[in-house]
Amino acid sequence: MKRMISPPRVIAVAIGLAGLLSALPALSQTATSPSGPIGRLLASNCFQCHGTNGRGPGFDTLAGKSASELYKDMKEFQAGKEGDNIMARHVMGYSDAQLQALAQWLSTQR
Amino acid sequence: MDRRQFVRSAATAGLLLPAGLVLADSNKAPKRVPPSPAPVAAKARVIVIGGGMAGATVAKYLRLWGDAVEVTLIERNPKYLSNIMSSLVLTGQRSLSGLTFGYDTLQARYGVKLVVGEVVEVDPVRVQVRLANGTWLSADRIVMAPGIGFDAVPGLDDVNRMPHAWQAGAQTTLLARQLAAMPSNGVAVLTVPKVPYRCPPGPYERACLIADWLKVNKPRAKLIVLDANPDFVTEVDNFSKAFYGLHGKVIEYRPNSIISSVDTHQMVVYASTGAVQAHVVNLIPQQRAGALAAGLATANGGRFVPVDVLSYACLDPAASRVHVIGDAAATTQPKAGHIANQEAKVCADALARIFGGGQPDPAPVTNSACYSTITRTQASWLTAVFQYDPVSKTMKPAPASSAASVGWQADNFDQMNTWFKALMADSFA
User: Fold this and answer.
1) Quick one: pLDDT band at residue B8, thresholds 50, 70, 90?
2) Which site among B64, B370, B385 would you substitute to test the A interface, given the most A Cβ atoms closer than 10 Å to its Cβ?
3) What is the model's pTM?
4) CA–CA dist B8, B23 (Å, integer)
């Protein structure tokens, strides 16, 4: 999957998402549950195809991307902008809150 | 070696690990990652029985996510042979050696302790297991990933005459040889067991693959598919088109075919839809949890093990510290390697939380994804995300995510190879 991302839209979404995330303090970068960061188990659903912690091998490497970029990419797949493919269907299985939580956790992976 | 000796020598092995390992990364400079030697002072101990997709993954993630959890993986074979992709061995497109995965990385990078041996007894109350050599090992929790076992088929006195090849290995090679030796106008039979069985699209994709191979190699041969189910159990559109259209001159599909017995000397399969004589019979019998879990298997008519899908702990209160993951568990999820990997992560996360004094995640999510070979170069895909439903206490497929490709493509075949590489790395490396 080769994808072009236009910078202005990324920034716009990033600002939108940043606002959204600041409204959800539980999703800050260091948020942890009694034993395990929020979003980690959810994000591990990505690992079978994108590698452990999103670091490959596999399809697009997810580590190193910002939460806003990951969230935007997933929403584009969900909206069918990438066609009716396995990733589009996969992402339809999550709520927005789940996508935000897993994107936030993945963004901590470098 | 008694238990004390085992614990001591394993701990020593943990101290001898290299100081750092280099990880290959396609996009960045190689990164040094800290090693994860087995904990010297373990806060909790887990025994994992079975090193397949579920067992290998839970061992890895318990070490990755657990705080000083000592993990001992017990597996009877020194290496794992992948069932996924193994039908491509039948057409000569893959080799068993290329489908072989070792436990070296789990040991070296994650500090998993490997015991190559046979577990002969599990004591769920004392949380102990006995090995064939008489050694008892104990832990705080046991995770069982014993995979599947097969029902006995009346008349099947020599399994090599009618191999299932549903666990990759010698039977896979044997079935490939039998197909190659078949006359060019020969008849092959493939049987599909009653649900639930391992890998729902698996028998149909194997039938498609064999049919595509027969067209070139045995142009007048036939493949009769005897399905114990009333219809294709999954991907109905794709397999209908493939069986009746694309491969219609090769495949003869007979649903509602319950096998009552076989005759391995005359090579006859007796089914509720009639008797069939064939040159090659790929007999895939009805399935149940692997033998070690038989005592816990009270679901699906005594076939599979009922579990709490928040942690995969057995529902049987007498076995509450025994967890069962993968194909042996009775859940609403399909029995397959990809989702077994995710069940393993849910289990590992739950155990890490429990050992830390917490509770399992109350809303786990899992997913199933796979590709089916419709020809030797084209594939379809199938996927579903499962969300925990607190009312039924089961994993429910999210409707919009439950889908298959419309038709099949060469692109999907390439993606299948990428998916396989990624999945195996997430489970074994």
Assistant:
1) very low
2) B385
3) 0.88
4) 29
